[in-house]
Amino acid sequence: MISFILNDRLVRTEERPGMVLLEFIRNVSCLSGTKDACREGECGACTVLLGSPEPDGSVSYAACASCLLPLGEADGRHVVTVEGLSVEPLTLVQRLIVEHGASQCGFCTPGIVLSLTGFALSSPSLSYEDAVTALDGNICRCTGYVSIRSAAGALCEAISGAGKPPAGRLDFMIKAGVAPEYFRGIPARLGELEASPDLPDGKAVPVAGGTDLFAREPERLLESGLRFLSRRRDLAGIREDRGFLRAGGAVTIEAFRNSAAVLRHFPALAQDLLLHSSAILRNKATLAGNIANASPVGDAAIILLALGARLTISGEAGEREIPLEKFYLGYKRTDLACGELISAISIPLPPSGARYHFEKVSNRVTLDIAAANSALFLTTGPGGTVSGLRVSAGGVAPVPMLVPGLDVFLGRSPGDALAEDLAAAAMAAAKPIDDVRGSAEYKKLLLGRLILAHFRALYPGEAA
C-alpha cells in the first residue's frame, strides 16, 4: 500500500510502485493540470512539487518531472499539482504570471507555476538568479521568456523579506500568498503516515533518481519490483571526513551542488553542474547514478574523474573502495557485480592553490548532451611549477577518460608551451568515433581546444 498526500487529500493506493506519478495524477486521480508531453523530463510541462518530511519536523519541497518519478517515491510524502495551488484569489505566483502576460496557450504554465513556487519554498537565497535557474527545465513555445522572467523578478521582490532558511519560511510564504493555508498542516499529517518498508529483494531493481531508467525503460520498471535507494539514510548526506568530501550514493546533483561543504572547497561546481541537466531533473538525479550510467560524456563523471574521486562499493560481500578511473571497464561496462551499488563518493579536499576548470561543448549551452567535455585539476609546488595534474575527457573514448601519462608534465611551469603540449598529449590519447554529435576528427580537434580553454581560463594572459 502506497500512502501519500496529493494536494490536500490523503491517498492510499495499491497501484504498482513503478507506475510513473504522471500516470497516477492524470489517469487515476483525473487531475489534468499536469501535462503529458515529452516523457523524458525535457519540457517541464509535467512538473509537480514533491514534499519530503525532514528530521526537524519541516517539509522540504523540490520541483520534479512527474513523467520520470515513480509512484513509489511519493510514499509518505506530499505531492502538489497546480490544482493544489487553486485558491481564491490566485496565488502570488499565478497572479504575477497574469500581470506580466507570461502565459498564452497555457500548456506550459502549470509547470512554470510549480517551478516558481518550489523556488520560493526552497531557494537558499531567493535571488533572481536562483529563480531563473529554477525555470531552466520549463520550455515555453509561444509566450517568450522575457515576460516569464519578469514575473520571476517580481516574485523575488515580493518575497525578499522572507529572511529565513527554507525550513522556517513556510509561515511567511502562506501569508504572502505563495502557498495555500492547508500547507501549514502538512508536516503533522505526514508524521501520521507510515511509509511502506523498503524490503530487500534480490530481484528488485534498485532506483535512486531514476531519471535515466524511467526515460529508457518505463514498461520494464512498471512490471518490476523496485528498491528506492533515496529512502536509505546510510546513502544520504555530505560531510568532510579525514581530508575527503564524502557524498552518499543517494545524494542528488542539486543537493550536492548547493552543499555548503561543496561551495567551500569547490565553488565552481555550483555553476558547472547547472550544465548537467535542468532543476526538475537535478532534484532527483544522483551523482552515483551519473557515474553508474557509464555514459562516455557524463558531465558529473568527467568532473569527478579530474578531482580524483574514489568510489565505495557495497554488496553482500561487504565494502570495497576503488578509484573512479578503475570503475569503467568498457563501453557501458562497469566494475559493479550483481547486487552491488555505489554507496559513497569520496573527493580529496583540494590543497591550497589548486586550480580546477570544466568545459563542455554541445549544441545548446545548457540541457544538452555534450559532443565533448573536459575537466582539468592542477596543483603547483615551490616556484609555481606543476606538482599534480589530472585531465579528464568525455566523448573521445568508449568510457569517461582520464588522460594517461601526465607525469611527464610535472615540474614544468604553466604557460603556453605546457598548454600546447598537454593538448597534443590529450589528442593522442583520444579514441573518438563518428556519431550524430560529430566526426571522430572533429572531436579530437575539439578536445585539443578544450585543453587550451582550461589554461586560458585558469591563467588569463599567461597561456594559450
Condensed summary:
With 464 residues, the chain is an alpha+beta fold. The protein contains 17 helices and 18 strands. It is globular, with a radius of gyration of 23 Å.
Helix and strand layout, with pairings?
Layout: E1 2-6, E2 9-13, H1 21-28, E3 47-53, E4 59-65, E5 78-80, H2 92-99, H3 109-122, H4 128-134, H5 145-158, H6 170-176, H7 186-191, E6 205-207, H8 213-216, H9 218-223, E7 226-228, E8 238-241, E9 244-248, H10 253-258, H11 260-265, H12 269-272, H13 279-282, H14 287-293, H15 299-306, E10 310-315, E11 318-323, E12 328-330, E13 333-334, E14 341-348, E15 355-361, E16 372-380, E17 386-394, E18 401-402, H16 416-429, H17 440-458
Parallel strand pairs: 1-5, 6-7
Antiparallel strand pairs: 1-2, 3-4, 3-5, 8-9, 9-14, 10-11, 10-14, 12-13, 15-16, 16-17, 17-18
End-to-end Cα distance, whole Å, is 61 Å
What percentage of residues falls in helices of 4 or more residues? 25-40%
Q: Tell me the fraction of residues in β-strands, as a range.
A: 15-25%
Oligomer state of the chains in this structure: single chain
SS element count, helices? 17
Whole-number average pLDDT? 91
Low-pLDDT ranges: none
> Could you give the order of strands across the largest sheet?
2-1-5-3-4
How many strands, what sense, and barrel or not for the largest sheet?
5 strands, mixed
Count of the separate structural domains? 3
Can you tell me the CATH topology of the largest domain? Uridine Diphospho-n-acetylenolpyruvylglucosamine Reductase, domain 3
| CATH architecture descriptor text of the largest domain | 2-Layer Sandwich
Name the CATH class of the largest domain.
Alpha Beta
